[in-house]
Amino acid sequence: MIQDFFRKDLSDFESYNAGKIDYKVRLNANESFNNLGAATRRKLGMVIEDSIYNRYPDAGALQVCNLYAKYAKVESINVMAGNGSDECIQIIAHTFLNTGAKVAIQSPDFSMYGLYTKVAGGIPIEFPLSEDLKLDVEGFITMANREEVKIVFLSNPNNPTGGTITRENIIKIIEGCRCIVVIDEAYFEFYGETIVDKINTYENLIVLRTCSKIGLAAIRLGFLITNNVLMEELKKVKPPYNVNAITQSIGSVVLEEPKIIYKNVERILIERKYLWEKLSCIDGIKLYKAEANFILVEVLNAKLVKEQLLEQSINVRSFTSGVLENCLRITIGSREENDCLLNNITLGNDNNM
Length: 353
Ligand code: PMP
Description:
By secondary structure, the protein is an alpha/beta fold. Helices cover 35% and strands 16% of the residues.
């Protein structure tokens, strides 16, 4: 049987189901609601026309890494580009994990840390957040050292909670954990705090960033930022031409003019404030601190609310078990999309509001 050749440890894995994308209001995937402006898109049209299609792209994605380095205020030798930061997570897992190696993650946190750990043959050790979705920092460090994990993955701000870990506590974790510490700053632009300035202070620190949340989800471009020693090791595993030429060019055009990003972020932050204020006026909805481009809310029955929203072609992310039971993660949309959500959201009881 052909299945005899399959990996037994993958037998209960399920393929990633990103869901339908033809909803009228898409507030489920933490994307930016702004497309690039017409002038930038016209410029990209010329870039695409002038691209060299018969040659492999630059294997090190040098130009876009240089520009990202400037944007992130680091040196370009400390930057590696990935096909989304997803790929950076995968490269980290494959570089440092062998079969049976343990990895410490918070629960809940971004699901890909656990997935890529398992695909690499490693074992994710989950450390639950408290009922109010906070991390017990000392407890986490103790657990990571007791389990002798090789990697700690943490998103800051956290997806899906939207909560954050203070700089002081991030430093405690980097200094306290005897392993590689990956701080995933996918939502950095909506929070403003970063630890990227410490990549050369700590030998065990890797920072992740992405362009997906700031208007470029379609092109798949993420970055890994770390010191030279870890970078050399990671380069051994990085696929040679992992970021295609078009992505490199589009990323470069946008990063050459970072005000495109700043303006986009500003618009998202205005809408976050608006949505937060409106949601907080609705009795029966509990809101969690929102430092990313989404708001986590708790309702009476998240499954029902989600179904009711889907009937109006509004898609949000719902959680039905664990500490996030009855929570919805709502990505910040445009004013029109946010109003549409606000006009249709219910508490999940039988009396629609
Ligand atoms: N890290 C976190 C915390 C995320 O939420 C996401 C996207 N949902 C990613 C990484 C992956 O982003 P990318 O599109 O760059 O692969």
